[in-house]
């Protein structure tokens, strides 16, 4: 009994900590996604009360994530807010299907460079977009336009008192986030995002700063179940791509987060297939409510573990606290400056860009670094879905090239047949090297072609070697003798 009581006490404390971390992030992600702030809270509530109750990973916490902000913003802009629920619902059902088919473990095979490049691209677009929000300005639509318009934004900001006030609040928020952990004593234990947003809100009220604040419409009014017309949007190619992007990116981020959380504690390990089902169930409910898509969030999950959580009760209770706040204190949201939430997301976006890791990766694995950078640039330049596809294609090509090493050793003792020995993996990617070496052999000498040490010989190489042997044998010499082991 004492052990159970101790677990409950630890879980209660942890749930409050996670609630305080999640609250500003739920609101900030919603505002940055171009949807009502309450929809972020709804997703956080579902992450606690639905996903939190299901088996999978016992200590990681789910909710709206900065990593999906850019994709949600693009989806709302293209298809409209009423269609968001249908898109998220379809993504949730797809995740449920993948979990039922036990595909969760296969997400561990996704190139880490592609995932880090995806997050870096999201981070860059998120930072650029939220810099406009920090100055109470409207951000351009595309990633390149956001980045290209920053010099003009800077000039416009210094010409407007309102923009300067908002920028001061946003910059102050980022500064608090960076410095808060260094504070001694009790203050340092307060979650930095909550402290930063609370201080910015207090400053804006104290000095009556003319800045934009979060628009509040109430929790019930924000719920927008998708109508029949919204499901018609799913028939388009663009909508299908968005659903796939929601499902795949949310699943990958959740399962990578689960692996990271497992390293933080000694409790039960994650069942990846069950976790994928839990995420799918949560996104299905979020879709039915017209809310944001969810994923497991490493910031909240790490806070949960570090606060001493023992069981899934902590993440369920954090959903309860979010529900009580949204139901009892909705007007408090209307006091929060948008610039402060933008500062929180700029800070979150910076964490998504692995600057330090990239330098080490370039020294040790340059191919992986190239995949990371190309994926990030493609996401910024084109879009989320196409950028990830480009990164995956490049990772596959790089892997195929690296694993297709083949060695051609020619032994000529001056008399008798020339022996050509091939070893490694003979694929079409290395065909020019193989044929250059064989075609350079004398036409008037017998040839022994030894393939016994090849680990792999694809159809293209086999056909080309057979054609070369036939041509060489037609020159009037002895037929090429081939020893094959594959």
UniProtKB/TrEMBL annotation:
Localization of this protein: Membrane
Domain SLC26A/SulP transporter as annotated: residue spans: 9-375
Any Pfam family: Sulfate_transp
Transmembrane helix recorded as keyword: yes
Membrane topology of this protein: Multi-pass membrane protein
Main location: membrane
Keywords: Membrane, Transmembrane, Transmembrane helix
Membrane-crossing segments per the record: 12-32, 39-59, 79-97, 109-133, 163-180, 192-214, 234-256, 320-349, 369-397
InterPro entries to which the protein is assigned, alphabetical: SLC26A/SulP_dom, SLC26A/SulP_fam
PANTHER family in the record: SULFATE TRANSPORTER
Protein name per the record: SulP family inorganic anion transporter
Organism: Streptomyces flavofungini
């Amino acid at each position: 009994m004492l052990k159970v009581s101790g677990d409950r006490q630890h879980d209660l404390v942890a749930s409050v900590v996670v609630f305080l971390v999640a609250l500003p992030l739920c609101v900030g992600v919603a505002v940055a996604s171009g949807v009502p702030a309450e929809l972020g809270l709804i997703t956080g509530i579902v992450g606690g009360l639905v996903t939190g109750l299901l088996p999978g990973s016992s200590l990681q916490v789910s909710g709206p994530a900065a990593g999906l902000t850019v994709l949600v913003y693009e989806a709302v802009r293209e298809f409209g807010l009423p269609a968001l629920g249908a898109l998220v619902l379809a993504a949730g059902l797809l995740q449920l299907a993948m979990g039922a088919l036990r595909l969760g473990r296969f997400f561990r095979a996704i190139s880490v460079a592609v995932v880090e490049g995806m997050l870096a691209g999201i981070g860059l677009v998120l930072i650029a977009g939220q810099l406009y929000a920090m100055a109470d300005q409207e951000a351009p639509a595309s990633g390149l336009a956001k980045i290209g318009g920053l010099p003009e934004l800077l000039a416009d900001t210094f010409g407007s008192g309102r923009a300067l006030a908002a920028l001061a609040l946003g910059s102050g928020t980022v500064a608090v986030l960076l410095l808060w952990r260094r504070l001694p004593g009790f203050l340092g234990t307060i979650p930095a995002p909550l402290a930063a947003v609370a201080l910015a809100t207090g400053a804006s009220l104290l000095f009556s700063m003319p800045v934009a604040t979060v628009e509040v419409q109430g929790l019930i009014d924000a719920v927008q179940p998708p109508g029949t017309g919204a499901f018609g949007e799913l028939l388009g190619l663009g909508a299908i791509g968005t659903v796939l992007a929601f499902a795949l990116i949310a699943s990958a981020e959740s399962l990578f987060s689960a692996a990271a959380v497992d390293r933080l504690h000694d409790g039960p390990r994650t069942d990846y297939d069950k976790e994928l089902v839990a995420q799918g169930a949560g996104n299905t409910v979020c879709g039915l409510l017209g809310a944001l898509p969810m994923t497991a969030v490493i910031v909240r999950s790490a806070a949960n573990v570090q606060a001493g959580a023992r069981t899934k009760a902590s993440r369920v209770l954090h959903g309860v606290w979010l529900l009580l706040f949204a139901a009892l204190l909705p007007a408090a949201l209307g006091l929060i400056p948008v610039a402060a939430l933008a500062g929180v997301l700029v800070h979150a976006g910076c964490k998504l860009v692995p600057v330090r890791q990239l330098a080490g990766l370039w020294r040790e694995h340059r191919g992986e670094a190239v995949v990371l950078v190309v994926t990030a640039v493609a996401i910024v330049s084109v879009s989320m879905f196409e950028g990830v596809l480009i990164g995956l294609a490049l990772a596959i090509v790089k892997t195929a090239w690296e694993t297709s090493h083949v060695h051609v050793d020619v032994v000529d003792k001056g008399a008798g047949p020339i022996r050509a020995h091939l070893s490694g993996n003979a694929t079409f990617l290395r065909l020019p090297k193989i044929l250059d070496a064989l075609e350079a052999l004398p036409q008037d000498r017998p040839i022994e072609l030894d393939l016994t040490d090849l680990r792999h010989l694809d159809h293209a190489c086999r056909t080309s070697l057979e054609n070369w042997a036939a041509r060489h044998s037609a020159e009037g010499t002895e037929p090429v003798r081939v020893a094959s082991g594959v």
